[in-house]
Each structure stands twice: as structure tokens, then as C-alpha cells.
Design goal:
With 206 residues, this protein is of the alpha+beta class. Helices cover 22% and strands 33% of the residues. The strands form 3 sheets. Strands 2-3-4-9-7 form a 5-stranded antiparallel beta sheet, with no helix packed on it. The chain has a 4-stranded mixed beta sheet with strand order 1-11-10-6, with no helix packed on it. Strands 5-8 form a two-stranded antiparallel ribbon. Keywords: Signal.
Length: 206
């Protein structure tokens, strides 16, 4: 947590700097740097509060939210704006055309979940795996299985992550899920960083 000086201490520091300038001809650069650093700490705190505000909430499809991005054991952090844009029914024919044939063709229905991502942070993200945390829960309350396509790109649902996700960059990615017959998609989920137990949810409308 940032440490803020009491007002009296800050005033004392400012007075000492002013005296130093008057008597010793020194610059007040140190004071300016201290004030600027304090401002940066406050800004970072506000950004932290803004991120993940929708963790555990259910939003309508198409509504964006800001989240904290954290990748694996290297502790790379960032800030993303994430939106679940759409959930639409696909076909096994489209998957076969792409060279992908699930083993449970007769018992499942493909659905395509499209997400958009924007890098709001101050650093480019290398191999970010943006789409990996995207999940889909069906009306029976079960987490549906994503279709693992490897390097194969399904034309109807392109989902290849960028190798580098630059500051300010935006990208739209699609992910294939196999939903058992007799149930429908209910909720799109997304979680990363320290909030994996409180994912953001988007309600799928019929």
C-alpha cells in the first residue's frame, strides 16, 4: 500500500526546500519529484480500484469491463478492457471444413463465443493468451468444453492470439465451445489475475 505523509510533514518538507533555494541556491527538484511521485501513486491506486469492479457480477452481452491481467508465474501484469460480444450457433460442417472433427459430433452443438480485448495498461504484452480464460456455462450449470484446435484456424470463428499486444491495441477473438444437446449457452465467463474465483459474467440471451 502507498504511504502518504501527514500534511504537517509535507508542509515541513516544502518549507525546507524553499529555505534551501533561498539560502543555498539549490533547486527544488527533489520536492517536485516527491510531489510527482505522490501523484503517480494516487493515480495507480485509482486505476487499481477501477479494475475488476465487475468481478462476480453478471453483465449483458456487449457491455465492456476493465480487469487486471496477470500471466502465470512470471507475474506480468496489465489492464484490459474485455467485452463478450456475441454467442452464436456454429456447425460441425464448418469445423470439418477447417480440418477439425470432434469425437462427440453426435451429442454436441458447436457455439462460437466472440470477445474483444483492448490493452489499457502501460506495457506491451508478449504472448498474452488473451482468449484462454474465456469460458461458457450452459443452462444446466455445467462449464462447457472448449474445442482445442491447436494451430488450426476455424474460418467461421478465428481466434488466434496476437504474439504481441501493444499498448492501446484492440483485437476480436472467437472461441469454439461444444455444448451438449438438450441445453443452451447461459453465461460467458472471464477471469484472470487474482480474481479467478470471481469471474466477470455476461448473460446469454436467446
Amino acid at each position: 500500500m502507498p504511504t502518504y505523509r501527514p500534511r504537517t510533514a509535507r508542509s515541513g518538507t516544502a518549507l525546507l526546500c524553499a529555505l534551501g533555494v533561498a539560502l543555498l541556491g539549490l533547486t527544488a527538484t527533489g520536492c517536485e519529484d516527491d510531489t510527482a511521485a505522490s501523484g503517480r501513486r494516487q493515480s495507480a491506486t485509482r486505476a487499481d480500484v477501477a479494475a475488476d469492479r465487475d468481478g462476480g457480477r453478471t453483465l449483458p452481452l456487449g457491455e465492456p469491463t476493465s480487469i487486471t491481467y496477470k500471466r502465470g508465474s512470471d507475474h506480468v501484469r496489465g489492464a484490459l478492457r474485455v467485452t463478450a460480444v456475441s454467442v452464436r450457433k456454429g456447425t460441425h460442417t464448418e469445423l470439418r471444413t477447417a480440418g477439425v472433427t470432434p469425437s462427440d459430433v453426435r451429442t454436441t452443438q458447436p457455439y462460437y463465443v466472440t470477445m474483444t480485448f483492448e490493452n489499457l495498461g502501460g506495457n506491451s504484452l508478449h504472448y498474452p493468451f488473451l482468449n484462454t480464460p474465456t469460458g461458457l456455462v450452459d443452462t444446466s450449470g455445467v462449464d462447457d468444453q472448449p474445442l482445442i484446435t491447436g494451430d488450426t484456424e476455424v474460418t467461421a470463428c478465428p481466434g488466434k492470439d496476437p504474439d504481441d499486444f501493444a499498448v492501446g491495441a484492440k483485437v476480436s477473438l472467437c472461441k469454439v465451445f461444444l455444448v451438449p444437446h438438450g441445453v443452451r449457452p447461459s453465461v460467458v465467463t472471464y477471469s484472470t489475475g487474482d480474481d479467478t474465483k470471481r469471474p466477470v459474467n455476461w448473460k446469454v440471451t436467446r
